[in-house]
Amino acid sequence: MAGNKRIMKELAEVRTNPPPGCTVTLADENDMGTWDAVMDGPPDSPYTGGHYKIQITLPKEYPFKPPQLSFKTKIYHPNVSNDDRGAMCLGMLRPDEWKPPNKIADVLRLVRSVLAAPQPDDAVEQGIADQFKNDRKSFDKVAKEWVGRYAK
Amino acid sequence: MRRLEARRQMEEANFLSSKARSQNLNPPIDLRMLDYVTAYDDNLMCPICRCPFLDPVVLAECDHCFCRDCIRQTWASTYSPLGPRGDCPSCRTPAKLGPRSATSKILVNITDDLLVRCPKSEDGCKAQVKRGEVQDHVNIYCGYAYMECTADDCELHVLRKDAAEGCLHFGVSCLDCRQSMQKASLETHWRVQCPDRKVSCELCKEAVFNREWDTHSRETCPAISIPCPGKVFGCNSRSKRSQADVHAKSCTFAKLTPMLTAMQQRMDEQEAAQKVMVRKLEVLEGGFQAVQTILSTKQEDPDQVGADESRIPLLTGRPHQRGDSGGMLDAMVVETDVGAFVFPPPSSSSRPSSELVHVRAGASLPPLYSAPMAPGPRPADLPEPFTMDFDMASPFPPPAANGPYISPLHHLLSMHESLRDEMSRMSAALQELDGRQSMQALNENLRTREEISYMAAQVAGLSRQVHWLTSAQLQRQQHGGAGRQAAGAAGPSGSDIAGAGAGVEAAVSTAASALRGAARIVNAGQGMTMRRGLSEEGRTKL
Ligand SMILES: [Zn+2]
Ligand SMILES: [Zn+2]
Ligand SMILES: [Zn+2]
Ligand SMILES: [Zn+2]
Ligand SMILES: [Zn+2]
Ligand SMILES: [Zn+2]
Ligand SMILES: [Zn+2]
Q1: The pTM is what?
Q2: Assembly ipTM
Q3: Are A66 and A94 in contact (CB under 8 A)?
Q4: pLDDT in tens, A62-116
Q5: Superfamily of segment(s) B16-191
Q6: H or E segment at B65?
Q7: CATH T-level fold of A4-150
Q8: Are A1 and B50 inside 8 Å of each other by CB?
Q9: Which residues of B touch A6 (CB under 8 A)?
């Protein structure tokens, strides 16, 4: 019960005052538990110009359990798994680190900052992380290529 | 005075019992679902449920404040018999909820004084009350909350505002839709359910059927302002539906809209098609790269192995060509030369044929062992046009397997082929050797037999002579002996001689049997001599 009211409030809040570069809609107007966010690639990053669809799944126990994020648009990024799930590894979203006061808008803001500044030491895709650390140029090149290929 | 007191008590009891009954009819309100009339200060908001605090508690350890229910629920998974405890949801300080955890009365008062709308506002109650009193409002005052029918014989419930009108639980039928129902529920029916009742639209002042209300408010109400059809392409003007056509006639965007939408649609289609193409291209590129990596490893290989690869078949080929074209003698010279790398040079040239066998057997091996160093020690032997990258134009036509190899596998196969050739040549040489040895043994054996039979003949002659001598002696003794027997005296000397004769005969026969044994041994030994290889004697005799 507490969850539902809170989700409604958060949704209204995020719709009237969305985090920069994001728009949020409900996947299904009758289901408050699944949100669709579209995030623009942050400027000054290789992802500029890309539009990323992110699905946010809120568990029944929200806000006591963390939401789950999955990139529906392919992205070349060390912190996003390069598979169908597109899972993003964010410390904040781990069950033991999640704090009920965190809001979805905060999560989206963090996602965008991670897009702008990848965290190779906390990577899901080790190969991409190594490339990011050792060969920034070719990393940027591939990331840009992927923007053109998948995220336009 | 006493009556007054009694009456007050009775009224209080009535009030309390009606309150209790009303509570059964109106379930407790979820205070988190309330609508607040005005915006409230964010500082009054619980960070977990994002509502103004309900029964707030302050964690003594870090001073963070939450609703009691919220913090209990957060800690529900970390149960402890010592009472609720866990990490503060805001700052992760380990904290616990003691029996005296509470907050200042002032915060409770502020949050309880926030104005909320009555939870029955959807049913028609316009009341705005303090949050702390909302439950009482519903239980006692709200006209849209239920209470028991005032009629004594009626057990049903009724909205509080209708209670004064007496029992309303009799059947009526709706004037508009003819549905029959109880009078008590007629008003609700009219307001929201009756499909045939007209309601008036607040915007256009038109009366609309209830059943058409949804479409009217969403689509057809002429007073609703709608955006220009060219909005997506840049026109920001909005106009009432009734005046939309007027605007559309003057708006360039609106005129262009059909064309632009068609173009947009085509672009989307093209984009989708292009995405498919890109996927395909990706797959093709991947395949192409795989092929390239396979090819490039192949090209690197010959550079490494190439030296051996092109040389080995070339050298295995060489003796053949020399042997075939240059004649036996030439072949021998070259082959001995090559053989010297592996075998000690043949000791002497006195037995040319057997030496040829040796060298031949050896000559086909060296290329395998000495291949890498072959070009070094004998550069003079190499013909002028010989180069590392041996090609078809060179005077030595390559043996079948020679030339640039298609793959390492072909190289291995050709090496295997040349090894097989070596093997067959060696086995031929071995057979030749074997035949030669058995011939030698046979010859030697024949000679031995001749000697033996010669010896046997001599022995036979000897034994004949001995026999003749003995018989002559015996005759002489018999003559002499008859004379002596006649004289009556048998001389011991006569028998002595006879004994000696028998002894000689025995000795001769012993010698003969010894000779026969020797012949047998020689016969049996033949087989062994054949296997034992060339004896020095046999070789010289050959
Ligand atoms: Zn709360
Ligand atoms: Zn705290
Ligand atoms: Zn009310
Ligand atoms: Zn009644
Ligand atoms: Zn009706
Ligand atoms: Zn209207
Ligand atoms: Zn317009």
Answers
A1: 0.47
A2: 0.74
A3: yes
A4: 888 899 999 999 999 999 998 888 888 788 888 888 888 899 999 999 999 999 9
A5: Zinc/RING finger domain, C3HC4 (zinc finger) (3.30.40.10)
A6: strand B65-67
A7: Ubiquitin Conjugating Enzyme (3.10.110)
A8: no
A9: 48-51
